[in-house]
Design a protein that fits this description.
heterodimer; A: Heat Shock Protein 90; 2 domains; B: alpha/beta; Rossmann fold; six-stranded parallel sheet; 54% helix
């Protein structure tokens, strides 16, 4: 019975998201959906608090809520957080915020994969794109929060964009040996 | 006009989809339980069935299996609020040609129906992620390498889908034709349906989030 009830709430949320109504409504529906899913599907408390997946979920939920832009997060495998992985999550978050704030895209796609010796991340939007040289010097988010952060942790950041062509930020950081 | 059948127990959602599809598709019928769905689909003989994964009396996967045993021509597209790996994998293995979540926009849903109707596979970013995870190299050596492994190219195509690329954008990025992208995606779907790896079902239940 409880399961059916939950299912109905999800159905209704799905319905709300499908309407052409304002972004606000979509964001509220998604926020509610996220909460319900967390409650329905959460693993044992504390089981994954210190993991890449938990940190990414939190970052995506927060940006989605603040900027009213759906974030589509896909993660392959999981790993514990260390300094490098934490830096990758922060850089990811910065890239998602930039996309949500400036790209005018309907949603942001985030793909993160844990490989044997590194973690890679892709943050992509199909928005307006930009020219690197046109970004004002006082907006140092990209250079410092993304590229600088990755370099300090032995990683790399590549930003592919052009006006009208969307933006993809690619990040990679080595995994520390356990 | 493509004839679509809805298997959906949620009345509100069903009528929403019905009115959205109305202009471009013929809605050939609707059923709200698994028991009702099988004979009704065989009777209506639609081109594409939009299949809810959870029904009051069972799973959508069983509906797909039973119908496909008699009418392999009918295409199934799973449409669900669930994005748990177990549901996704079970439905695809039962014969669905694609899996999309109910938050998909009307335009994207119409596109997915057309694509499934043409015999192509429809992978959402999340489904692509599940498949990459399920076929990752962390399991014992495959029994049948032909079916139990993804080629480098298939993996690359799935990664692009997971990154939010459309098939057209993938074709451009990898310098291949859109048809070749479709071929790779269909091959992955076939592997997912036919692979004998015991690990796959265990993998899915390990990923079960409840």
């Amino acid at each position: 019975m409880a399961a059916h009830l939950h299912d109905s709430v999800l159905q209704t949320l799905a319905l709300i998201q499908r309407t052409e109504d304002p972004a606000e409504m979509v964001a509220l529906a998604r926020g509610q959906e996220r909460e319900l899913r967390a409650w329905l599907y959460s693993k044992a408390p504390g089981a994954r608090a210190d993991s890449l997946s938990a940190a990414l979920d939190d970052a995506a939920a927060e940006v989605e809520h603040t900027h009213r832009t759906p974030i589509e997060l896909v993660l392959v495998d999981d790993c514990p957080l260390d300094d490098g992985v934490r830096a990758l999550v922060h850089a990811c978050r910065e890239a998602i915020v930039n996309a949500a704030r400036h790209s005018r895209a309907r949603r942001v796609s985030v793909y993160v994969e844990v490989e044997d010796d590194r973690v890679v991340a892709f943050v992509r939007d199909q928005g307006i794109g930009f020219a690197r040289e046109a970004v004002p010097a006082d907006r140092r988010g990209i250079a410092e929060s993304i590229e600088g952060r990755m370099e300090r942790n032995g990683g790399v950041a590549v930003i592919e964009t052009a006006p009208g062509r969307g933006t993809e930020v690619r990040l990679a950081v080595p995994r520390s040996r356990a | 006009m493509i004839r679509v059948f809805l298997v959906e127990d949620h009345t509100l959602f069903a009528s929403g989809v019905r009115s959205e599809l109305g202009g471009s598709f013929e809605v050939a019928g609707r059923a709200s339980t698994a028991a009702e769905a099988v004979p009704a689909i065989l009777e209506a003989d639609p081109d594409v069935v939009l299949l809810d994964v959870h029904l009051p009396d069972g799973s959508g996967a069983r509906v797909a299996e039973r119908v496909l045993a008699e009418r392999p021509r009918i295409r199934f597209l799973a449409l669900s609020v669930s994005d748990a790996a177990e549901d996704v994998i079970e439905t695809i293995r039962a014969g669905a040609r694609g899996y999309v979540t109910k938050s998909i926009s009307p335009g994207e849903l119409a596109d997915a129906i057309r694509r499934v109707h043409e015999g192509d596979a429809v992978f959402s970013p999340r489904l692509a992620g599940f498949v990459l995870d399920a076929f990752a190299g962390r399991v014992p050596p495959p029994i049948d390498p032909e079916l139990d492994q993804l080629t480098a190219r298939e993996r690359e195509v799935l990664r692009h889908i997971a990154r939010g690329y459309t098939y057209k954008e993938i074709a451009r990025a990898l310098h291949i034709s859109a048809k070749t992208v479709e071929t790779h995606v269909s091959a992955v779907l076939r592997k997912l349906q036919l692979t004998n790896r015991h690990q796959l079902s265990r993998w899915a239940s390990d990923r079960r989030l409840v």
